[in-house]
């Protein structure tokens, strides 16, 4: 691009992910690319408004629309939606129980007429093995109902496969239920572009790389954390606790409970977080202050048996 310079103000910028741009280039359709740009600028526009803005005939518009569908860059609209519906969504998705009851005809139409979904299905079966009819419907729900684009779902499949391998070793594959559950999480986080999903995956990988130090602080070795344990670890990382402070909370938990309990340990750390305590020295100083002020129990570690902790033992 040495001979060209794009002159765009901050307000004029429209950001497209590299996979989307590559797909538009490979489609070799200037009309399709122009239509996608119009959609990206104004997602609320209807087909008639877009056609008028572009000055196209109905046939020219339909051809560009079909090209975008074949690229997997727009999806078939649900009842009541505009004729053109980009995969991006901005509102939180409905509850998981609200997944449409796709018929076999719905599934077959999606496979035969939607190149994006067909590509997703091939990748899912490459990663997970042959899918049952119920699993294919779940996959269609992620693509059609939640609006996750094809390239995002492919990244989702890779992410789920990596996590399962880390937790259980080579050879263990995620189930479609694992993928569906994670997919709803991505939709709630509004990861509707490849760039956003990739940033999340990179952050999650970096976070998982830190789990080992925290597990070691808890005396756990030789395994990855399960999903429920990851939620606690994520809390502690988000709260800014180093592994050394977690080790201190572990010791207090075992002292008071005679065994390690994740909710109890989380309760201790939550209390320290609310008080702005981060390091072991800060936590010990607070313990000494409480004992000196007579506000804690006279037994060792008894300050952690206050009523505030009861809820964490249920």
**Extended strand count:** 0
**Estimated structural class:** mainly alpha
- Percent of residues in helices: 55-70%
Shape: elongated
Distance between the termini: 63 Å
The residue ranges in which pLDDT falls below 50 over 5 or more consecutive positions are: 8-12, 85-92, 295-308, 310-314
Run of helices and strands: HHHHHHHHHHHHHH
Largest sheet: number of strands, sense, barrel closure: none
How many helix segments? 14
| Radius of gyration over all CA atoms, rounded | 26 Å
Describe this structure in words.
With 314 residues, the chain is an all-alpha fold. 61% of the residues lie in helices and 0% in strands. The protein contains 14 helices and no strands. The chain has helices spanning 18-27, 30-41, 47-54, 58-71, 104-113, 115-128, 133-145, 150-168, 176-188, 194-217, 227-238, 243-257, 262-275, 280-292.
Task: Set down the secondary structure blueprint.
Layout lengths: L17 H10 L2 H12 L5 H8 L3 H14 L32 H10 L1 H14 L4 H13 L4 H19 L7 H13 L5 H24 L9 H12 L4 H15 L4 H14 L4 H13 L22
Helix pairs in contact: 2-4, 5-6, 6-7, 6-8, 7-9, 8-9, 8-10, 10-12, 11-13, 12-13
Tags for this entry?
314 residues; mainly alpha; 3 domains; 61% helix; 0% strand; disordered C terminus
